[in-house]
Design a protein that fits this description.
7-stranded mixed beta sheet; alpha+beta; Immunoglobulin-like; disordered N terminus; 37 strands; 4 domains; Purple Acid Phosphatase, chain A, domain 2; TIM Barrel; disordered C terminus; about 700 residues; globular
Length: about 700
């Protein structure tokens, strides 16, 4: 039936319109034993709407999926598809839609992995997003079976299944081949496009079949605690009583130890730690535990003893590898260079967060080796997150090095570190955040929402994990730019050729100049370089060599100064005076509640004691800005933009308590670059019915 581009009428959609459940194993699937599609890759028109109407009248109990309709608008609720079922949609787009609040139907990509050749490389990434994002409900691999026909090479004719051993484990015997498009003399064909399954033509599983088996396994090993490996019932409906299992412990010396495993009585989604019947040797070598899970009885799809899955857990990494890396970092230690290190998904088990416990990585790069180093500020209790402080250009800077995956405890720790260093600009480093130009990964978006967005001190982030190099800019909650850089070069020549990214901070120009080069290649230049090495020696792409304009002075991480303090600035420097005021909450001894009335910015010299009202109004001083705050209550922040001129200036707070002998209980903080906590209490001087706070002096020096 030919498709028409017109859509003259619509039919109501009785399919599901509630937000989609979490995963493909959701109980909602109970009422969807099968679905009826309108076809495959046949565009979309009025005929599809008509067909959908007929199907819904014929069988209203089952949903209608059709990619051609759903691809136009995933959030639409009135087209021919009851399911948003795009084809090969990026993981990040699917997760973003599920979290957008606009979802009106389940999101189930009709195809997300194409099993032709050596593909299917992102199954784990897809399922990590599906199982961690409410609203994503599963997806499908295209397809199950390679449609090859066994063919004699000599005469080009199909051989069928007869003969002595024409194939074995997916491999055709000598003199035979698996034939597909073009192998029969035809001129029009699709080539290998029909050899796109996760099993070979003789049904022998390909490696991807085993990978998918472990992703969809009914039993997972999540992490390792002191009690033993943590077992998860990964099913949605069944217990584990239909399964049995054995432990295998593989050691660095080549030995494999085995023992029976008693699976716990777990309901779907529950976990339990199982004690291991083995003791790890003290050799420090790598050790892996495997739980081989098989069927306890005959099943309709397989006999008793069929292996269902074999989840693995690394109990101890290759300590020798971590030791070798640690020795390389000793060069920096000998030179007294400050540095930070953080764990990526290849350094620790990727399914864990910073509460994973002991690992070889932590033994080498945990807080203990950093103790005593001048730039080391501290670590989270788990040891996987650290912060580092250094001084440059007359101010203190903070580097926050965060784990591959932050737990709630990790987020709380990071926020506390930033709060305890209110004047320090923050550079955040982590393994995953940006995944492409102007794009954040699902976890990167979480990190932005839960930490970066609301902390104005964070102005720059660096991450790896994805490639090629990329950068993004986001406005934070304060309206300031945050520069987010992806700095991974492992896909380049020699796995990155020891590429290094340099950031040159020029605060006079308010600019960061960025360059990317390979010291390893540069060091070999005298011996002669090949063409590829010359190209990779210094990178000049838009994401490799660039400049970033920054103006950190309008942010909360400026130089701090309290009432009565003094700050030096350059002539012409732009300032934002952030004045945070907490109004009095209790009266003075005479029962009168003090009130702040005005905030003044005064240029010129101050003579005499600060408590002398007349000296504040000396002829050579001039009020250049006054902010009336009469009647304002509670805690509030004033922001006053200024430019440093030839004269020094100061900030004063003035108000009244109605009694010249009264004592003030007004709290206020003044910081030319951002608020800090300051409670003057009852120590402010008074004159007549007005009081004046100790001023903040800002001295201007020449350029």
């Amino acid at each position: 039936m030919p498709s028409s581009p017109t859509r003259p009428r619509r039919w109501p959609t009785p399919g599901p319109t509630a937000p989609a459940p979490r995963s493909a194993r959701s109980p909602n699937w109970c009422r969807w034993p099968w679905s009826r599609s309108l076809g495959n890759e046949s565009d979309y028109g009025a005929n599809h709407d008509a067909a959908a109407g007929w199907v819904r009248r014929h069988d209203p109990t089952r949903p209608v999926p059709y990619e051609g309709a759903a691809k136009l608008d995933w959030a639409a609720a009135d087209d021919a598809s009851d399911i948003a079922c795009p084809m090969y949609a990026p993981i990040e787009d699917c997760a973003a839609h599920a979290l957008s609040g606009e979802q009106t139907r389940p999101l189930i990509p009709c195809e997300y992995a194409h099993a032709m050749g050596n593909s299917n490389g992102t199954l784990a990434d897809h399922w990590s997003a599906i199982e961690s994002t409410p609203g994503l409900q599963g997806s499908f691999i295209w397809e199950f079976w390679d449609h090859g026909i066994l063919q004699r090479v000599t005469d080009g004719r199909p051989a069928g299944r007869s003969g002595a051993g024409p194939y074995d484990n997916g491999v055709a015997a000598p003199g035979y081949r698996w034939a597909y498009g073009g192998d029969f003399g035809e001129a029009i064909h699709d080539g290998a496009f029909i050899a796109d399954g996760i099993v070979f033509p003789d049904r022998t599983p390909k490696p991807v079949m085993y990978e998918h088996r472990e992703i969809a396994a009914p039993v997972l090993l999540q992490s390792y605690r002191h009690e033993g490996p943590v077992v998860l019932n990964h099913q949605c409906f069944r217990g584990l009583d239909w399964l049995e299992a054995r432990w295998e412990l593989t050691l660095a010396d080549g030995r494999t130890l085995t023992a029976p495993a008693e699976l716990p009585d777990l309901r779907p989604g529950e976990t339990a730690a199982l004690p291991l019947p083995f003791a790890l040797p003290d050799d420090g070598g790598e050790a892996w535990v495997t739980l081989r899970v098989t069927t306890k009885d005959d099943e309709p799809w397989g006999p008793r003893g069929t292996e269902v899955c074999a989840p693995q857990l690394r109990l101890r990494g290759a300590q020798a590898e971590c030791d070798a890396i640690g020795e390389a970092f000793e060069l920096l230690d000998r030179r007294g260079v400050g540095y930070s290190v953080l764990a990526g998904n290849h350094d620790v088990r990727s399914s864990t967060n910073d509460q994973r416990g002991a690992t070889p990585y932590l033994d080498t790069f945990g807080p203990e080796p950093f103790a005593g180093k001048p730039t080391f500020g501290g670590a989270s209790p788990d040891g996987y997150n650290t912060f580092h402080l250094f001084k440059a250009a007359g101010r203190e800077w903070l580097v926050l090095a965060l784990d591959w995956r932050l737990s709630d405890k990790g987020y709380a720790w990071a926020k506390d570190v930033i709060a305890r260093h209110p004047s320090a600009p923050v550079i955040l480093t982590t393994h995953e955040l940006v995944y492409g130009d102007d794009a954040l990964s699902s976890y990167g978006q979480q990190l932005w929402d839960k930490l970066v967005k609301d902390h104005d001190q964070i102005f720059l982030t660096l991450n790896g994990h994805y490639w090629p190099a990329a950068r993004a800019v986001r406005k934070n909650a304060a309206g300031n730019d945050v520069h987010l850089h992806l700095t991974n070069y492992q896909n380049r020549y020699y796995g990155g050729a020891a590429m290094i990214r340099l950031y040159h901070f020029d605060l006079d120009r308010n600019t960061i100049d960025v360059e990317t080069l390979s010291p390893w290649i540069l060091g070999r230049a005298a011996k002669g370089l090949n063409e590829l090495e010359r190209e990779e020696m210094v990178l000049s792409g838009d994401a490799d060599r660039f400049s970033v304009d920054i103006d950190s002075r309008d942010r909360d991480h400026g130089r701090g100064v309290t009432l009565g303090g003094r700050l030096r600035v350059r002539k012409g420097e732009r300032l934002t005076l952030s004045i945070t005021v907490t109004s009095a909450s209790r009266p003075n001894p005479q029962g009168i509640l003090p009130e702040l009335a005005h905030v003044d910015v005064i240029r010129g010299a101050v003579r005499g004691p600060v408590a002398d009202r007349d000296s504040w109004r000396a002829p050579d001083t001039k009020v250049v800005h006054t902010r009336d705050v009469s009647g304002r209550k509670g805690t509030y922040t004033l922001r006053i933009p200024l430019v440093a001129g030839d004269e020094s200036f100061y900030v004063r707070l003035r108000g009244s308590d109605g009694n010249r002998n009264g004592a003030g209980y007004l709290g206020a903080s003044v910081d030319p670059h951002g608020p800090i906590v300051h409670e003057p209490g009852n120590g402010d001087p008074w004159a007549d019915t007005w009081f004046y706070s100790n001023p903040v002096f800002v001295d201007v020096k020449g350029v």
